[in-house]
Amino acid sequence: MQLIKVSSNKTSFKTVHFNKSGLNFIVAKQKDAENKEVGRTYNGVGKSLLIKIIHFCLGASKKSYKTFCNQLPGWEFTLEFEAQGRNYVAKRATEYPNKIILDGEPLTLAKFNKKMAEVSFNLPDDVSYLSFRSLLPSFIRSNKKSYVSFYDTSGAHQSYQKMIYNAFLLGLDVFLAQEKQQLRKEYNRIKDFETNFKKDELLRDFFFGQKDVELTIDDLNDKIAKLEMNLAEFKIADDYHMVQKEADNVENELFELNNKIILLKNQIRSIDNSLKIKPSEGNLEDIKKIYGEVNVHFSDSVTKTLSDLESFYEKLISNRNRRLLEQKNKIKAEIKDKASSAEKMQKSFDQLMKYLGEHEALDVFVTMSERLSDLKSKRDNLKKYQTLQKEYKEKLREIEKVQIEQSEVTDKYLESMKPEIEEIRRYFRSLVKRFYPNSVAGLKIENNSGDNQERFIIEAKVESDNSDGINNVKIFCYDLTILFKGQNHNVNFVFHDSRLFDGIDERQKGEMMKVLFEEFSNTDHQYIASVNQNQLNEIKSVLGDELYKSIIEDNTVLTLTDEDPSEKLLGIQVDIEEN
């Protein structure tokens, strides 16, 4: 795959025609290099935007281009490219970012990317994460974050993803890589299962060995059996609460009735005590005797009056006794009547209590049933824990065994691949040595037997060098290694943004250009880079005029300046945020 042309439906756009092979430079200049006016910079002229447009035309996710599409309504971009000997034309409009028109055929992003994967990479079946969009940034890094590490071309992927992308492009066995990842994920899932045990209130004590599972299950079985037997004998009374309320009412009435009987009996005792009181006999004679002793004599009329008084008194006592007896008889009759009622009420109360004693309320039955269900649930959870713990321990042992076997297989595989790997390592090392001849440098490709998901260790190393640009040089050398010595791809270009050259010593920048000139001459590969004028000035001071012309000037395909918006890539002034 090689880039041919980038254009737009807007006439202000600076169409870019790429050299089919060799070097291609997009140069950003200040029209007046001596002008120090704030705002007159190389930034914003469209160097990085060109990369963004190419990714847009090659199926980048719509969500990464919201601002881009909003800021450029009505724009359509066209990318012409060659792949496997055939030319293609891809068009994508900001108004309709969900589709790409490939050679006149509208395609969804998914279908377009699937088509591109077929012509650009030799993707294996059933290997996750490998796709056209995930691998393309290895040849055209898309943003600032992708220039942080040689290993991570997007700045957003997880460790396993980064490893499998690089392993695939270096020609390593991605099935070995995926198998370790899947085993490790399963291992972690089982460990998470154990972690959940620690959090479970029921299972926590068993997990830490503070309780015995077998003994606890036996105890629960005993409780369950006893509760099941009680429930089997349970008699439910639908009217239990109504009968209970009736019994309470009868008990209260019976209590009040017995109290009344006691009060009535107390009244009879009072009457009996009153009846025991007798009038004194001989009262009249006693009075006469007393008065005779003091020589006082009653007249006949007084004597008669005293006799009448005595008769009246006797009559009064007789009437009182008669009324008390009548009252006593009446109370006895009332006691008898109330005692009869109390006896009947007692029998009714006894029957109600007997009924309640032989039956239970429905809510009691429900409570017992819920208790039984709870006990069974605990027992079943413990049995499940017991079974799963055994199974998972066996699985962990099996996984650990397979991991060891896999590690041995990987060692043998890497040994068998040693010639191919050495060729890649030699090429990378030869490039790095052009910049750091006195440093220990190389590409490390080894088996990763650690407790992680990554099957391979892939590291670019340059030791004993304090240059600020060492990381950028590693990216440069590694990307060229993937392009020329990598496997499983049909991509024949690398596109670097000008930020790659930031922080690199001018001598190393010059050496980069020499390497590019040597490596890409007489090949069908493209190297594309955006470069700032100040970087080119440093490069020219190292290369000299003649070599500078051959490498840079003769291969400059587009020049952008800050003099006016019309001199920028889009030909208009617009601010588009970089994602």
UniProtKB/TrEMBL annotation:
Record has Coiled coil as a keyword: yes
Coiled-coil regions, chain positions: 176-267, 375-405
Keywords (A to Z) from UniProt: Coiled coil
UniProt keyword annotation of Coiled coil present: yes
InterPro entries associated with the record: DUF2326, P-loop_NTPase
Highest taxon listed in the record's lineage: Bacteria
Gene3D superfamilies: P-loop containing nucleotide triphosphate hydrolases
Protein name: DUF2326 domain-containing protein
Organism: Amphibacillus indicireducens
